[in-house]
Design goal:
With 175 residues, this protein is α+β, with helices and mostly antiparallel strands. The protein has 5 helices and 6 strands, in the order ααββαββββαα.
Length: 175
């Protein structure tokens, strides 16, 4: 998106995504929540315990983000659209109350129905310094947790529901 409001009219997936990004950067909670269907379904495949349903939870989540990060910004790096789905690569930044910086990036896939986000698959993660690609590959191959997973206690990790429905099919095209 070349300007803050370019392409934000209409019900097409990229128009909904544009309205969502503008609402986030304006910290307009009502406009942000209006981008989501009341029965919105959210899942974070790398974090299955974060799955939720409903625009009310979207509102609670973003109210907490805005309260904790007064200078929060979402930068769209790339988008793609296919039929009723929009893919967005985001970079999120902000300053926490303790002065530490939020630096997160990743991609989200949103399904749009009736001009609102009906479902989402979120792959946003905080940027971590790490120890390089060799260490990451070695850790994955050996079954060693890295990053956030290394800080979590494996004994108390929630069981993954192996009977979840398959992901909603999507396709990509350059935008």
């Amino acid at each position: 998106m070349t300007s803050e409001t370019e392409g934000w009219q209409g019900d097409a997936p990229l128009a909904v995504l544009a309205r969502l990004n503008v609402a986030v950067n304006r910290r307009d909670l009502a406009a942000l929540v209006a981008c989501f269907a009341p029965d919105y379904e959210s899942e974070q495949p790398a974090h299955p315990d974060r799955r939720f349903r409903g625009a009310a939870q979207v509102e609670r989540n973003w109210a907490a983000m805005f309260a904790a990060l007064p200078d929060f910004r979402a930068e769209v790096l790339r988008t793609a659209v296919a039929e009723d789905s929009a893919w967005v690569e985001w970079r999120w930044t902000g300053t926490r109350a303790d002065g530490s910086r939020l630096e997160a990036c990743g991609a989200c896939i949103f399904g749009v129905r009736g001009g609102r986000v009906a479902w989402g698959r979120l792959y946003m993660e905080e940027v971590e310094a790490g120890q390089g690609i060799e260490a990451a590959v070695a850790g994955l191959a050996a079954g060693e947790a890295t990053g956030e997973a290394a800080r979590e206690t494996h004994a108390t990790a929630p069981a993954v529901d192996r009977h979840m429905p398959p992901p909603i099919p999507t396709a990509t095209s350059s935008a």
